[in-house]
Specification:
3 domains; Rossmann fold; 43% helix; 15% strand; five-stranded parallel sheet; alpha/beta; 16 helices; binds iron/sulfur cluster; globular; 365 residues; four-stranded parallel sheet
């Protein structure tokens, strides 16, 4: 998709030293302040997120974009699906810009519209009605539109519990994609037994399941995953518990079931931030989420012991593509009256995708 579209910014930018890049961003931000909003996802590196007017997880940033009516340019320091969501929720005169088009989400790319349509069609032959489609916000706009057209909703890691409860009140079964782990962790918290959860393999007819199993199951979980959160393993939890029995473990629900079960707490990045920030000084935390957020929490809480749950560096490489130099390039162009890297979702897709997003806002407040 977007991965080949990034223009080479050239030596005029690549050869700049970091200090002058940061100074120039700062002064352009001041110059463009009337028209400009910079949004920064919690996983962005420090050199970038320091310029964000608002930081947060997908849900918080989507809400903020929707509520911002007066800024013409929204520079989204995050990944592609987040910029698409911001474009869907903002008005026609607003332009959403992704500083580097190569910043996609590997999980979102684990399901295409064609694959989904094929799966839905084969499922509909076995279960003709009563299936509610739910997409995690980490998905392309075309998939949100697919869901919107079929009476479903978007969810985020903050509200998956409420959205799945709603879905089960609307239909007998749920088709959940693309994150198998968020789906399983949430269903478990809702008391749904494992035998009612079927993994749906995207390249197999009926997801690799028998028609009898499909008729019996309550939820189908697309076998997508986050390449970062899958790096956290149950043995990392054991290692920290053995090393320090006082340490608390908190993880993101994109982690595998065994890790979430072994942890003390789990939740969205916003929940992780709130939980860690609000605990008393001297507390100790091993955190199972992206390393830039863990490092920021360390800096913000010098009176606590904070470490990554994994001994390996769990970095989201695509989030990390948003480098200060690309932010500078995008802002330089805006100052020169040129919009580069605009993310635009055309109305035939944006309309039903907005419907699915609005259902989410209506359900989760
Ligand atoms: S952390 Fe995982 S889910 Fe988030 S953008 Fe990176 S790969 Fe996608």
């Amino acid at each position: 998709m977007s991965l080949l579209l990034q223009q080479d910014v050239g030596p005029a930018y690549q050869d700049l030293d970091e200090k002058s890049v940061l100074q120039r961003i700062q002064s352009l931000k001041k110059r463009l302040t009337e028209k400009l909003l910079i949004l920064g996802h919690n996983y962005q590196q420090e050199a970038v997120i320091q310029f964000a007017d608002q930081t947060g997880d997908s849900l918080k940033l989507a809400r903020y974009a929707a509520a911002t009516k007066d800024k013409e340019f929204i520079v989204f320091c995050g990944v592609h699906f987040m910029a698409e969501t911001a474009d869907i929720l903002t008005s026609e005169f607003q332009k959403v810009i992704l500083p580097d088009m190569r910043a996609g989400c590997p999980m979102a790319e684990m399901v295409s519209l064609e694959e989904l349509a094929w799966a839905w069609e084969s499922l509909s032959r076995v279960v003709p009605k009563g299936v509610v489609p739910i997409t995690y916000i980490n998905s392309a706009a075309s998939l949100k539109a697919f869901v919107g057209d079929r009476g479903g909703s978007v969810c985020t890691s903050s509200n998956a519990h409420e959205i799945l409860q709603w879905a089960f009140s609307k239909g007998e079964k749920v088709f959940f994609f693309p994150d198998e782990h968020l789906g399983r962790n949430t269903c478990y918290s809702l008391g749904i037994p494992f035998e009612d959860m079927l993994v749906w393999q995207r390249d197999k007819p009926l997801g690799g399941n028998s028609a009898e199993d499909v008729k019996r199951a309550k939820i189908f979980l697309w076998n997508g995953y986050c390449t970062v959160h899958q790096m956290f393993r149950p043995e990392h939890v054991k290692m920290w518990r053995k090393r320090d029995p006082d340490i608390k473990i908190i993880v993101h629900p994109e982690c595998m079931f065994e890790v979430v079960q072994a942890a003390d707490y789990y939740g969205s990045t916003e929940k992780i931030i709130k939980t860690v920030n609000e605990t008393p000084r001297g507390t100790k935390w091993a955190i199972g989420t992206e390393i830039n957020l863990v490092t920021r929490l360390q800096k913000q809480n010098p009176d606590k012991f904070i470490t990554s749950l994994s001994p390996f560096q769990c970095l989201c490489a695509t989030m990390y593509r948003i480098k200060p130099v690309y932010l500078l390039w995008a802002l330089d162009n805006l100052a020169a009256g040129k919009v580069v890297n605009r993310i635009k979702v055309e109305e035939p897709t944006a309309g039903p995708a907005r419907l699915a997003l609005d259902r989410m806002f209506a359900i989760s407040g």
